Amino acid sequence: MIATLSLAPNHTSLCSQKKKKKKKNKSGRESEEKSKGLCFGFGKPKSTPLIIHHRPHPRTKLEALEQVVKDIEGSVEKGIRIDPEIYASLLETCFRLQAIDHGIRVHRLIPTSLLNKNVGISSKLLRLYASSGYVDDAHRLFDQMTNRDTSAFPWNSLISGYAQVGLYDDAIALYFQMAEEGVQPDSFTFPRVLKVCAGIGSVQVGEEVYRHAVRAGFATHGFVLNALVDMYSKCGDIVKARKVFGKMPHKDPVSWNSMLTAYVHHGLQVEVINIFRQMILEGCQPDSVSISTILSGVSLLRLGIQIHGWVIRGGHQWNLSIANSLIMMYSNHGRLEKARWIFNLMPERNVVSWNSIISAHCKRREALAYFEQMEKSGVKPDKITFVSILSACAYLGLVKDGERVFALMREKYKIKPIMEHYGCMVNLYGRAGVIKKAYSVIVDEMDAEAAGPTLWGALLYACFLHRDATIGEIAANRLFDLEPDNEHNFVLLMRIYENAGRLEDMERVRMMLVDRGLDY
């Protein structure tokens, strides 16, 4: 049972009582003065229009930023010169709020001459573009910088931007270009580059980068060692990760979180619990990252409930990240009523909160209801939101709703579909028996060459369910090229031919299995 603290009803502070008393005394004196003729004959003052029509302060940081950007745009239109520090401050705010649309508007206002000579402003703009996934714009800006070799900041930003969108080869190439051009790396360079090494899965390159860090004087730097632990873990060497962690002269919360994440990544649940206990015993208070990580790493509901109790006792249950993780933990164990209870009581919600609750109901109609609530609340859905919604539509056979949501994603929210979205549409049409539309998604709406085994496999299975031999043949032949050793695809095509009465074709596919050394 969760205990709640409530104030007694009719509770009034001493301060408010005194104010009421003063007010009462004041009104008494005024009436007394009136009776004695001491009141001056001033007319009732007119209300100040500025106060009457005063606009309320913006309710959110984004609304406040919108107002400031509008004011700056108005000033620039009137020919007023804006101080460079204002541009720098606005770009910093846009970065912190990840407000790329506002950042683009600010970019349009900055004079080209100022952008070319002011490294600080151009670097902050580059960082904003890179962190928002606008890597081409970031690189274009980077190429235009004439004095980019004076600081590691723009290089770090672009390396980080490449890593964020998965272009790890470009990121590591940029790091070695940085070294060739003689740009001095700083304490932020090496953690970013080690993250890139984790992305490409190369311990050898990661260890070379760490040797560079040692020579640059960052051998025992906390950020670098934490990134090294993470690199070893993601490259599969948990032993070396633990060895580096054990030798750290000072372990901060990030260090503990790196090791926690490493054990979760490798599915070592006993070690996850042990390191969490050790963290507490050594006096390091787990933060929202620690708790969210361990909640994602426990497979036993009993342990999850114990951690939830520990969170409540610590007063952290409404931390946004922790509440989101609790929703996911309970929904993963089928406790939807508990997930809904947490969601409904959350004092604030972000896109992750909505994605979590929608994903929890991806096999129920409630997913669509939550999506409508999300839109009404003003939270902008992202790619993950639409994957969950389209999955729900596919599972429930809601073809019209799926088509409406897919169109909404592209037209209203300007989100370019990714492979998962196309996969959901193929599954949606395939389950409903609209095989030609499912096939059309692959060959007409996206690059058919880019379609992987998942999409073609979903189409082949739909052809088997609905006995479509023509498109089934096309899907199977594509899968034979993509997955030549997957006998499941051959077996499905044989069954399609069997259902169609094409026994010769069925025997031909069986011989293909034999020739490829696959059992049947």
UniProtKB/TrEMBL annotation:
InterPro entries: E_motif, PPR_At4g14850-like_plant, PPR_rpt, TPR-like_helical_dom_sf. One of its GO terms (molecular function) is RNA binding. It comes from the Eukaryota. Keywords: Repeat. Residues 7-16 have a biased composition (Polar residues). Residues 17-26 have a biased composition (Basic residues). Gene3D superfamilies: Tetratricopeptide repeat domain. Residues 1-39 are annotated as: Disordered. PPR repeats lie at residues 151-185, 252-286, 319-353. Residues 27-36 have a biased composition (Basic and acidic residues). GO terms for biological process: RNA modification. NCBIfam families: PPR. This is Pentatricopeptide repeat-containing protein.
